[in-house]
Amino acid sequence: MPVDTTDGVGFGVGDETQLILDSLDEFLEQEVEPLLDDLGDVDTNPRTGHHENGRLTDEVLEAREQIRRRSADAGFYAMNLPEAVGGEDVSPVTWYRAKKHLASHGPGLSRYVLAGPEGPKPLLLQAAGDQIERYLEPTVRGEKSTAFAQTEPSVGSDSPNMETVGRKDGDEWVLNGRKQWITNAPYADFVQLFARTTPQEEAGRYGGITCFLVERDEYDLGSYNNAVGAVGTQAEIVLDDVRIPQDRVLGEVDNAFYAAMAFLSLGRLELGAEAVGYSEYALEQAREYVTEREAFGQSIGNFQQVSASLARGKAKTYAADAAGLKLAWKMATDERTVMDASVFKWFATTVMWEVADAVVQVHGANGLAEENPYMDLLHQARMLRIVEGTDEIQLNTIAKELGLTE
Ligand SMILES: Cc1cc2nc3c(=O)[nH]c(=O)nc-3n(C[C@H](O)[C@H](O)[C@H](O)COP(=O)(O)OP(=O)(O)OC[C@H]3O[C@@H](n4cnc5c(N)ncnc54)[C@H](O)[C@@H]3O)c2cc1C
């Protein structure tokens, strides 16, 4: 189908993107589904697949790694990164559509097909010298996994106030502190860890923070930070006089916070894409259910309160998708996207929360059943409204962009 770009706006799916979406479906069928056959209900039920303390079972970890490696082999995993480092250089629009497309198949291990928090992000493109071969390229190939470690026990949204410190000692850096809620920390080969290297009084609020590449055998793991619906994935990182060589600084000393801020929009695009995809999935499940389920002698979809609740969900999901496409398009054309990214992330995740709640409701008791994914989607939506900047942080950013606050 030709892409109509009348007045610079195009909503058609280009041929190349459509080919990627079709190939992703084939990949799911041929590579992912056979792996899941051996895993029982782990794919659909987050209450399974982990030990008592939360640690994921070896079978689940193996399946995730296999999906990652096979996806990288097939050219999907980090296809948004430049060809020079092993990606495919696809545009943010294609990346958005691919992320959304996978989520629209419902929650499950298919989320590991495209690089998420465990995978390479543009921040890692700052890798230089040996870091390229040792960290960046194997992560793009899905052979190694990583984590992004910023949050601490006392500091989340206010991350520049972090207490973890890095002190230079000869040719080494000495790291002390504790990170918390770090996705993939228990399983990563290395983490990208943020520490204060110059006091705020000297470097300013956002300056003085450096990103270090710290290997798994160099940090201790604290407790698992198990969330409802996300058990075994997040954990604490404990740094007690950890010494690492100078060449493990990623990017420039004291400049990591600014570097990370440059990629905020991408994280928000990806997360919002998932929210839109999950909303589409949940609405489709509900549409089928209310057509078949009968009460008072007719299908429940005939009751206006039921159909209107799904219609409202559809309208909001439609609007969220349009906002996601606009954000992706502005990113592709290198425009400023601070406001757009916050609008989309806040809106798409709020819509998913409302849609998931409506979908539970129209399923009645079946909506609450553990074997169905609807309460899990509600939990997922709750989580998406906290990670990558909470609702309040997104609204603060929008208010700031409106000139209302500083
Ligand atoms: C499943 C999961 C995975 C995660 N993965 C990672 C990861 O990989 N790496 C990582 O570094 N972190 C990760 N996090 C942490 C996440 O980024 C933080 O939880 C998030 O930034 C919020 O910080 P906080 O939890 O400390 O809440 P706080 O910052 O303490 O906020 C508490 C409440 O106060 C509100 N609030 C705070 N400041 C303001 C303000 N200025 N105006 C209005 N309201 C405000 C917040 O919106 C929130 O409602 C993860 C968290 C979860 C749940």
From TrEMBL:
The prosthetic group or cofactor this protein requires is: FAD
* Keyword tags: FAD, Flavoprotein, Oxidoreductase
Start and end residues of each stretch annotated as Disordered = 145-167
Q: Can you say what this protein is called?
A: Acyl-CoA dehydrogenase 12
Q: Which PANTHER family match?
A: ACYL-COA DEHYDROGENASE
**By its UniProt entry, which Pfam families does this protein fall under?**
Acyl-CoA_dh_1 (PF00441), Acyl-CoA_dh_M (PF02770), Acyl-CoA_dh_N (PF02771)
- What Gene3D superfamilies does the record point to? Acyl-CoA dehydrogenase/oxidase, N-terminal domain, Butyryl-CoA Dehydrogenase, subunit A, domain 2, Butyryl-CoA Dehydrogenase, subunit A, domain 3
Assigned protein family: Belongs to the acyl-CoA dehydrogenase family.
